[in-house]
Amino acid sequence: MTFDTGNTGFMLLATSLVMLMTPGLAFFYGGLVGRKNVLAIMMQSFVSMGVTTVLWFAVGYSLCFSGDVGGIIGNLDKAFLSGVDLTSAYGPEGAQIPLLVFIAYQMMFAVITPALITGAFTNRVRFGAYLVFLVVWLLAVYFPLVHMVWGGGLLSEWGVKDFAGGIVVHASAGMAALASVFFIGKRHVKDAGMHSIPLVALGTGLLWFGWYGFNAGSELAVDGVTAQAFVNTDVAASFAAVTWLIISWAMQKRPSFVGLLTGAVAGLATITPAAGFVDVPAAAIIGVLAGGACYMAVSLKTRLGWDDALDVWAVHGVGGILGTILLGVFAVESVGGVNGLLAGGGPALLAKQTVAVLAVSAYAFAFSWVALWAINKVTPVRVTESEESNLDASLHGEVAYDMG
């Protein structure tokens, strides 16, 4: 078997970039919480790198990409990577990469998706309960969604498009985050919050850097669409960052660094589903809409009193839903092979995108709430009030900083 060395090298790099996003997320979240709860939130991201990899090797890859059961989930024919060896290939003839590279690339998506949820319930969840939720959520939400969208399942057959995870990653995680906020409730101890903006900046930089692998790598080859997705990613993030900065500056009468950083992440999340389907001007518009819509979602959350500590629903949930719908508006055949509403494709794609992302969001929300309820019957999900004031010491016996 002869593999395309260019595609293979690029996908190994893209896989490494996506892997780097999970530590980046840990730094991003870690900087946003108080100094006594840094390790607890960072560990929830890092532990997914271990637990999710084990689960992916055992059954995850197979359930996502092997066989089909009712268009919803795969089978276990490839459990423990059965039958996968050095000669196993993925992709079209003449441009194939080793199947092992594809497996690793998709595994990195599985690692970061449940970690996104943790920012919503920071300072409130026991580590053991989180581990149970992590496994159950991957099995019942993430793996079926991957199969339905990218594994040839129900949504793929229906014609739903999701280039790099607006439905599969961001909408599902964002709505699961909102469900966790409603089930777990508000924090009892007021968190000092945002103890290190430089950590937030570092995390944002790593996320932005890794997102090139996340989006451009989702073409699974090196071609014009790869370049288009790469540029769209940067443009949308930049326009969203500037939009958020302008709005927050006007509202708060001073330019906010955290606002600029949060806006960039909102733009990255929103362009994700459309990155390989739209042109650069559309990516700029999507970035502006992302900055405005996600800023308003944060404001709405605050007014309603939802304790989504790190704005996971407002940034990832709203961003993922918005980007998935806007794909149906701005898609152009010259980029991704399908025309959206504005390119003369009619309302069909827009309707499918809207129905799919709303249905997935509803399912992710409902299942996550029920899962937390069931887990709480077996082991307490929420920490005690005394533990909440210093999770690093009370749950892990370690501290991020010497407090004297």
List keywords for this structure.
Ammonium transporter fold; 68% helix; globular; two-stranded antiparallel sheet; mainly alpha; 404 residues; 15 helices
Descriptive overview:
With 404 residues, the protein is mostly helical. The chain has one domain (5-396): Ammonium transporter AmtB like domains (Ammonium transporter fold, Orthogonal Bundle), CATH 1.10.3430.10. 68% of the residues lie in helices and 1% in strands. It is built from 15 helices and two strands. It has helices spanning 5-32, 38-65, 99-117, 127-150, 154-158, 166-184, 197-216, 224-252, 257-271, 280-304, 312-330, 333-336, 348-378, 385-388, 391-396; strands spanning 89-90, 97-98. A two-stranded antiparallel ribbon has the order 1-2. A hairpin with a 6-residue loop joins strand 1 and strand 2. Helix 1 packs antiparallel against helix 2 and helix 4 packs antiparallel against helix 6 (166-184). The longest helix has 31 residues, at 348-378. The N and C termini lie far apart (61 Å). The mean pLDDT is 96.
The name of the CATH topology is Ammonium transporter fold
CATH architecture assignment: Orthogonal Bundle
State the distance separating the first and last CA atoms: 61 Å
Largest sheet: 2 strands, antiparallel
- State the helix count: 15
> Outline, from the CA principal axes?
globular
Domain tally: 1
Topology:
Blueprint: H1 5-32, H2 38-65, E1 89-90, E2 97-98, H3 99-117, H4 127-150, H5 154-158, H6 166-184, H7 197-216, H8 224-252, H9 257-271, H10 280-304, H11 312-330, H12 333-336, H13 348-378, H14 385-388, H15 391-396
Antiparallel strand pairs: 1-2
